[in-house]
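Complex record, two chains
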Amino acid sequence: TQLLEQSPQFLSIQEGENLTVYCNSSSVFSSLQWYRQEPGEGPVLLVTVVTGGEVKKLKRLTFQFGDARKDSSLHITAAQPGDTGLYLCAGVNTGFQKLVFGTGTRLLVSP
Amino acid sequence: GAGVSQSPRYKVAKRGQDVALRCDPISGHVSLFWYQQALGQGPEFLTYFQNEAQLDKSGLPSDRFFAERPEGSVSTLKIQRTQQEDSAVYLCASSFTTVEPSGNTIYFGEGSWLTVV
């Protein structure tokens, strides 16, 4: 069974702080996705990274795929209350359609 | 609406009761997925359809779980003889074609919250 471990599990910070969420696995994935899920909603795709070492930026969010395509990180600069939610990484394997989701990181940003 | 629609949003079932959860994917989407999400956890894959064909059901936890998509659009997830451990959010998702290798975006519905008492 493939596992994607996320750390930290829970993060409570003040508005304006920076943070990094990690997603680690012993398995190689063909691509990795990051989602944000708000209470009572389904996950919403933020980004897909495909190439080892790839870095993508989405406004204040920076995503990186590890060189070996086994791990990824999400860095948020100057967090805002609107960033509050459950952040999920999800791996995709070559030839398979299903997503393997990580354990999740719950982020709370207080004003 | 234009998104993935699921019903019912909330369902309370007595242990041993059968339940049926419905998913209306985005119109024209070929791929349809069901995931199970326990409280505070990441979603876990249940099953995958390409049109009406169920190509992967490796995540269904037991033979009490059954999914169908007879006409390649609407899908139903049926759980027979529900047990307390079935309590979870059941998420349906769809994508235009394949995720791998085409890289199409997967769109999730809001989920059906099932509580078995």
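Note: The longest strand of chain A covers residues 85-92.
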